[in-house]
């Protein structure tokens, strides 16, 4: 069963690689927005927190810290 979990993570990794590229752009843009306006835009904040939650759920599943299969969502 442990070896099957690594195969189940592959679709998540493809999705997270694409989202990581987008998250890098959002991070740079939000840094400048915070620098000039002094506040973090809500949409960018929600995207980044959702992305990080998804990454951590997949990491915990990959490291066998949970048996719950991570959903394909950023919530």
- What would the principal axes of the Cα set say about the shape? elongated
Mean pLDDT: 94
Could you say how many structural domains there are in total? Answer: 1
Derived structural class: mainly alpha
| Biggest β-sheet strands, sense, barrel | none
> Strand tally, please?
0
How many alpha or pi helices? 2
Low-confidence stretches: none
Secondary structure elements and their pairing?
Layout (H helix, E strand, L loop, with lengths): L1 H36 L4 H21 L13
Helix pairs in contact: 1-2
Task: Outline the structure in words.
Helix 1 runs antiparallel to helix 2. The protein has 75 residues and is an all-alpha fold. It contains two helices and no strands. The chain has one domain (2-62). Helices cover 76% and strands 0% of the residues.
